[in-house]
Design a protein that fits this description.
Number of strands: 4
Number of domains: 3
Strand content: 5-15%
Shape: globular
Bound molecules: zinc ion
Largest sheet: 2 strands, antiparallel
Radius of gyration: 22 Å
Number of helices: 11
Strand order of the largest sheet: 1-2
Helix content: 40-55%
Length: 249
Amino acid sequence: MNTAANQLTADEIKVILRAADEIILQGGRTLLAKILKGSKEKKVMELKLDQCPVYGFYKTWKIDDILLKIDWMIDHEFLEIRYDRKLPLVVFSPRGWQIHMDQYTDELLEEWRKWIRDGYQNPDMSYLKDRNREMILLLIEKIKESREKAFIPYLELWEKIDYKKMKQEIRIAIEAINHNEPIDPSVVKAREEAINEALEVEDPVDLKIKCMGCLKRFTFSVGEQQFFKQKGLSFPNRCKKCRKNPIWR
Ligand SMILES: [Zn+2]
């Protein structure tokens, strides 16, 4: 268990998730640390990672300390490691994705508001096509809730270029804004509560897992969990003794 990384705040968790979004399934923890450090290394510049809104967030920190924060994120199940051949790549955990999807859809909405202020009239909406469906539906939901009539021209542009299913969702949002349909505050509240819950940090504890071989419970320590998480392995369902037994190999 590393103790050098103190508990991260909700803001830090969100910042690291935001940076991770740039390299999901493409880069590992070192590249993620470099975004947060604000590195000017060739790879960072080539991938235009300096354009990430949280680029350089930890610029006064040492890279090793930033890596400890990233490991903390893995230990606490906000991020996961997936191996692609020999390469360990960063991916969102389910709760990490839930938190990030919420902040990312807010970011997309803020961008639309900026476009409106700048009088930007013909954005290419194809950037919203073929994105994660769950995320896009959440975005449409938030647009609907915003009741901002100024969004309608963008929605209409978007409607033109997306697939049938999404066209329908976008149309529903346009109608809801046009008719000023009442908003259900309980839906908004439930969503906020779910995010706050996902952000609650619990330190990992030793687990008692029932072995599928001998049916006895075995201890799977915090240290072992950390090792398995960083190797991108799922937790074992057999005790050490049974894992050594050739029958189970
Ligand atoms: Zn066993």
